[in-house]
Amino acid sequence: MKLKMLGSRDFDLQMVIAVFALCAIGIMAIYSATQIDQPQLSGLWQKQLFSLGLGLLLLVIMMAVPFRYFEAFAWPLYIVSMILLLAVLFAPPVMKAHRWINFGFVRFQPSELAKPATIFVLAKILSAHDFSLDKFWKLLVPIGAVLLPAALVLVEPDLGTSLSFAALFLTMVFWHGLSFGNFFFMVSPVLSMVAVVSMPSWIGFMALMAGAFWFFRVRFKYALPIFLSNIFIGSLAPAVWYGLKSYQRKRLLTFINPDLDPKGAGWHVLQSKIAVGSGGVLGKGFLRGTQKKLSFLPEQHTDFIFSTFAEEFGFIGVLIVLLLFFWLLFRGIIIARQARNRFASFTAIGIIAVIGFHVFLNIGVTLGIMPVTGIPLPFLSYGGTSLITMLVMTGILLNIGLRRYEY
Amino acid sequence: MANELGSRERVLSILALLTLGFSILLFRSGYLQVVKHGHYARLSQQNRLRRLCIPAPRGLVFDCNGVLIAQSRPGFDLVLVTVNDWQASVNKAAGLLGLDSLLLKSSVILQRKIFPKDPVVLVRDLMPEQVARIEENIQYLPALRLEVESLRKAEHGSLASHLVGYTSSLGQSEYARYRERGYSYGDYIGKGGLELKYENYLRGVHGWDFIEVDARGRDLGTVSEAERIEPDPGSNIYLTIDWRLQSLAESLFTGDMIGAAVAIEPQTGRVLALVSRPNFNPNLFAAGIRSDDWNRLVNDPSYPLWDRAIRSAYPPGSTFKVVTAAAALEESLITPEQKMKTPCRGSLAIGNRVFKCWKKGGHGWLGLHGAIVNSCDVYFYQLGIMLKIKGLSKWSQNLGFNQETGIDLPQENPGLIPDDAWYQKRLGKNAKTVGRSANMSIGQGEVMATPLQMASLYAALANGGVWCQPHLLLKAEDFTGKVLVGEIISRKKLPLSDSTVSVLKQALYGAVNEPGSTGGASRVWGVKTAGKTGTAQNPHGDDHSWFVGFAPLDDPAIAVAVLVENAGHGSEIAAPMAGKIMQRYLALKGWLEKPVIATARPQ
């Protein structure tokens, strides 16, 4: 990369500004959230600052490497990260989950590396010239490529990160041009299981399906099995679920999602909502938050950083953070659209999907509209691996932006 | 190239989805921060939201047949719930209950220093009439509330109190240590016996209720947004103890007899009964022990809180002779038939001291069998001199002395077997230890063993030389019925040859059944009983009375050790008690209904 490229029209300065602003807000929020009577936390903002420096260095390197190298190294990187994901299952658990490998001086989360690696591999598969989606079974290879890391992450267990693989897969397949109809019918079984929580929502979903059959003019011989299998899956879910005893459900839920913590989650979400709500329009002011002193540690500087921020900076602050994220994602989508290289375009949209999913799920949890899932807020949450991964992915986006007219 | 990626339709769809998602977040934020701001601002003002602990009931303790030994009962507490204007209520309550109001108030102030905003428990476990009096006057006590908590109840009072242990509430200093493990201030925790050992199983996980309180700290009801979280009850534990045998064994200690009894199943190491007398009533501790009760317990010269079965080491006296005999046989110093150099004439001169045999007239020439049957001290003095301290300490160690058995109870005493190094430290480098080894050979002098160790060794002999670790836990089961941990049977072959074991078993049988033997009072009609009495001299007073034995000889079902402090001869006090314990157990197991295979008395 030549220095003058930074002055080029294709260097996405707006995205860089948005990311810098978010990182600065993150450091401030972490500082505020950790200035409580827990001296072991008070220096975390400095550690985060160090990770930020390292992440920015990597961001610049990622920008400099021609993206063809990512394509060339996609499979080796994928294999290495799958091996690490396997290895982490044998590492000693931290807070009941096998998410970290401890190298003594630094703790590393293989699932973070697996995100870009999986994006590269999917991009490579989907961008191949002989790959088309004219037959449904052709999806099996990309499904396999994403199912492997998603399953390995799920058994760590880490539900949130596992779902982020689903998000990037669906987005990238959609980007490839899978027809709306097929896309809808691909996700419909999942929707069926979710919709079945209440009778009206399930009836609504069935009506939606019928509408989709009519709208997409699905032939009867395809529509009938799709419809029946959706009814089957939907009706099976509650039968299995309510067939379990309540403690079995609790055990199953906490096994899949240890962040759920049936003894603490309700308290966390309630405290988070009180923090956000009591912030009001203007907020209580920097370092003036009172909720953070209450006991929803240790997540208030990691997964619940948004509620600390929202308490101190109010609705105005929330608006600014949401706009920054929206702008970052919007610029990313522009880059994905303009990239002429198919691999680069897929990579860009995959990265956008991951960042967007994290933002929506994390903030949704702190606002009490999503079930508790331990997933960090990009650029803001405390945590070195997460911050560095996000900056690396930003670097890749900027890289693709710089070379958007290259084939 | 034809690039269908990023077509207008795809980009617009993704943008629409993105906008939808962010709008949801924005509207939700606006709803919380603008529309509901007042509500949440009120809740966030300090003290407004409180998490009330719903204590989990402690797990139950059962015996091997499902007889309930320890459970929980409700207790009514008088709790101070408001921060302001509390003094009038406390004064009034003190008057109603006849308590010192100054004392109550100072305890409130003390606890407020640690937990300024938490409710304060004024009085724990009110009597029913006190509850009634408070309830009648509750409208005059605006700062107070009656709360129910779950308290420990030992079903059978003081029976098996040492074994089961007791619970008491966490004090300030302990709370600091236990908070990491999820305990709250005032939680009940096992403080002794199995309640302590299996605390992690017995304790449950607390539930929570979320309540909103007013500025004075008064309850405004639960917050609907957060669901009440039900507690998980603690796990139940099942013991190897047979309650019928335990209560019989306890009843044998009549009056103010002090001592211990241990019964073990030889093939498994299951402890069938474990008695220590005097005992205490664990229910006194349930809601915090009163200071006069506590002082009475700790100042009692008979130490009722002390578990003599596992924590007290006594000189084992003649019951230890099997160890000396086993050592001599295994070191090939003697053969079973061989007579000792010097016959017993009632005493033996060693150096310039005279060591007496318990029988003044002496036993004459004896082989090993006869020496054990007659419990001849002079015979064993000579074995001790041959073995020296080194041989005796090595074999005692081999047979499980000077070490904990590893029973699943806290604070087990390892006993003491002195070795050469120990004596050198005690008596100087070149001390003569010949006399000491003679004394040690008959279980006197510095040798110390717990009743549990003795029972455990005889159980191993009964079981053909295979020692089983004594244990009390059959299983722990969580409240859903899932078995968390099962019985752990751990076996170890003692380094004794089969012939040694069989010689010793025959000798122990003789020591109960042959003429001139001392253990006759332990005989169980209809089965072959084996065992050894002991009359242990001790510096603190009259001799301790011992009996350790097992039955039936050929297919042992139970091994028993009984010790009665300062009660005199083992043959008169301990042996009949052990006999009754074995008899009862064999009767319970149906052994005594079987046809009698061997006559109880040879010759």
From TrEMBL, chain A:
The keyword Cell wall biogenesis/degradation applies. The keyword Membrane applies. GO terms for cellular component: cell division site; plasma membrane. It is an enzyme of class 2 (transferase). It is a multi-pass membrane protein. Keywords: Cell membrane, Cell shape, Cell wall biogenesis/degradation, Glycosyltransferase, Membrane, Peptidoglycan synthesis, Transferase, Transmembrane, Transmembrane helix. GO terms for molecular function: lipid-linked peptidoglycan transporter activity; peptidoglycan glycosyltransferase activity. Pathway: Cell wall biogenesis; peptidoglycan biosynthesis. One of its GO terms (biological process) is peptidoglycan biosynthetic process. It catalyses: [GlcNAc-(1->4)-Mur2Ac(oyl-L-Ala-gamma-D-Glu-L-Lys-D-Ala-D-Ala)](n)-di-trans,octa-cis-undecaprenyl diphosphate + beta-D-GlcNAc-(1->4)-Mur2Ac(oyl-L-Ala-gamma-D-Glu-L-Lys-D-Ala-D-Ala)-di-trans,octa-cis-undecaprenyl diphosphate = [GlcNAc-(1->4)-Mur2Ac(oyl-L-Ala-gamma-D-Glu-L-Lys-D-Ala-D-Ala)](n+1)-di-trans,octa-cis-undecaprenyl diphosphate + di-trans,octa-cis-undecaprenyl diphosphate + H(+). The chain crosses the membrane at residues 12-33, 45-65, 72-91, 136-155, 167-187, 193-216, 223-244, 313-334, 346-370, 382-402. InterPro entries: Cell_cycle_FtsW-rel_CS (IPR018365), FtsW/RodA (IPR001182), RodA/MrdB (IPR011923). Its EC number is 2.4.99.28. It is found in: Cell membrane; Membrane. Peptidoglycan polymerase that is essential for cell wall elongation. HAMAP family: PGT_RodA. Belongs to the SEDS family. MrdB/RodA subfamily. This is Peptidoglycan glycosyltransferase RodA. It comes from candidate division TA06 bacterium.
Automatic annotation (TrEMBL), chain B:
Its EC number is 3.4.16.4. Gene3D superfamilies: DD-peptidase/beta-lactamase superfamily, Penicillin-binding protein 2a (Domain 2). GO terms for biological process: cell wall organization; peptidoglycan biosynthetic process; proteolysis; regulation of cell shape. GO terms for molecular function: penicillin binding; peptidoglycan L,D-transpeptidase activity; serine-type D-Ala-D-Ala carboxypeptidase activity. Residues 54-222 form the Penicillin-binding protein dimerisation domain. It is a single-pass membrane protein. It comes from the Bacteria. GO terms for cellular component: plasma membrane. Residues 259-583 form the Penicillin-binding protein transpeptidase domain. It is found in: Cell membrane; Membrane. InterPro entries: Beta-lactam/transpept, Beta-lactam/transpept-like, PBP_dimer, PBP_dimer_sf, PCN-bd_Tpept, Penicillin-binding_protein_2. Keywords: Carboxypeptidase, Cell inner membrane, Cell membrane, Cell shape, Cell wall biogenesis/degradation, Hydrolase, Membrane, Peptidoglycan synthesis, Protease, Transmembrane, Transmembrane helix. This is Penicillin-binding protein 2. It comes from candidate division TA06 bacterium.
